[in-house]
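In this supplementary section we document a worked example of the pipeline. Step one takes a protein sequence of length 191 as its only input; no multiple sequence alignment statistics are reported here. Step two produces a three-dimensional model, which step three serialises into structure tokens for compact storage. The input and output of this example are shown verbatim.
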Amino acid sequence: EWFVDVGAQFGLWSLYAARVLEGKKPIHAFEPSPAFPVLAENARGHDCLHVHRCAISNQRKRTVFYSQGMATSGSVRETITRINQDHQPQVAVIGEEIECFTLDEMTRDLSGRGLVKIDCEGHEGKVLEGAQRNMDLGNDFIIEVHPPQLKEEGDSPGKIFQTLRSKGYEIKTVAERESTIFTILARRSQK
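The serialised model returned by step three reads:
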């Protein structure tokens, strides 16, 4: 019925969803980094695609988001952003104050079941903490899991799996990469 893209960067997943949903279902893309203007430009002409320059977390607050230009490794923790700094050593890590909201808060007006994609560099656990309603409703999740970044955040893949399983989700790994990052699909059977 709808699609939410947490950590949308330039909007690749959101644009694909707009095509698949034929522009008839709402899509919300969230991106706090300097990549946001590119996302907003890519969303032009897609009336169903709503873009938001903010972070998704476990509570509503203002915080600093650290980014390295438009690289995909930005985070609310500077140490996490610096993990991948060697990929673009000439680009400085910059902090910028942004708004954070919970996923539940930002999706409260969406009805029916939806699909939530999360790619937020180790902040996955915090996003799920703020997504209790979404999990209770049985929405599906595609989550890119970042073990080194999760560890830096005081979290782990095991905690992510435990959170999802405690809500009745089955977890399937759908993509693994040599860099230890992997993607999971979390679905709950409909009764």
